[in-house]
Amino acid sequence: MGESVVVVKNLVKHHGKVKAVDGISFAVKRGEIFGIVGPNGAGKTTTIECIAAMQVFDSGVIDVLGFDPVKESFSLKQRIGLQQQESEIPDRLRLQEAMILFSSFYTSVLDWKVLLKQLDLWDKKDAFYSDLSGGQKKRFFVAMALIGDPEVVFLDELTSGLDPQARRSVWELVKDLRNQGRTVVISTHYMDEAEILCDRVAVIHHGKLAALDSPSELISLYGGYTRVRFDISDRFDQSIMSGIDGIESMAIENRVCTIEVSERHAVVEIVKSLDASDHGLASFRIEVPTLEDVFLNITGREVRD
Q: 225-288 — its CATH code?
């Protein structure tokens, strides 16, 4: 990854009396998949739309590929692609008609026929927009975002509402965009999606940048402890765990024991103690911290609040 292609400094944007974005700063490097995560209403969409010249911001500086999105919005839009969270076209517009129309907006374009084939929509080229499924509509708007051969692609809540199979198909598409040399900025409330796809993730909370790093570094810093869970019987004696270094907490609920550990070797010692006490290991499992744990620990809120 090379130089920064998106630079945001002290971005502020109000919606009425509400400060939707409150002094956010970050940079996106060329060729990376950059994620923006946060609770609903945190300012993710507003941030993306300010960067992509869809909203005028109140203060701060934004530079995208050397362009000012306020003063040079037309030139900038020729170089970027945007799939918005809420997008619609007329129901009775056919897909190929829409692609031809949008192709006319750009000085440099990709072959819309190839795009529809790549996105598994070629057999729908003569279908009306209203006849598409939710997943097909999502893929179609990605095709529209790519028609201008963009260097930077913004995808806002790309997989929201899709079934698991469709989500994974879209994930492969995002990886392909990076493999083509494009820079991808996504917003999502799916933490597994951000953890799998993104090179770096910005966590936004109450319009502020709460954390920014690679998923692995964020998990290391904010993910909390590894959890060990196993079923217990009435004869389970908690004292068998005494003396094991690295155990931070232990709780029992509904005949399930949950132990938080800060040291890897503690997991081995727990297994040894259970084995020595002739305690069955049915359903024994280890849960390592994830980006969702990071999110909860930083924001204190459920992802879908």
A: 3.30.70.260
249 within 8 A of 233, measured Cβ to Cβ: no
Q: How much is the CA Rg of the chain, to the nearest whole Å?
A: 24
Whole-model pTM: value is: 0.87
Domain 4-79+151-221 and domain 225-288 have a common topology: no
Note the helical H segments in the chain.
Answer: 44-51, 73-77, 95-103, 112-118, 134-146, 164-179, 191-197, 215-222, 264-276, 291-299
Write the pLDDT tens digit of every residue in 139-195.
Answer: 899 899 999 999 999 999 888 777 788 788 888 889 999 999 999 999 988 899 999
Question: Which tokens sit at 159?
Answer: 């997989």
Residue type, 83: Q
Take residue 4 and report the two structure tokens written for it.
Answer: 């920064």
What is the assigned CATH class of domain 4-79+151-221? Answer: alpha beta
Interacting residues of 69 by C-beta distance below 8 A, sequence separation 6+: 50, 51, 52, 53, 62, 76
Domain ranges of the chain: 4-79+151-221, 225-288
pLDDT in tens, 156-168: 988 877 778 878 8
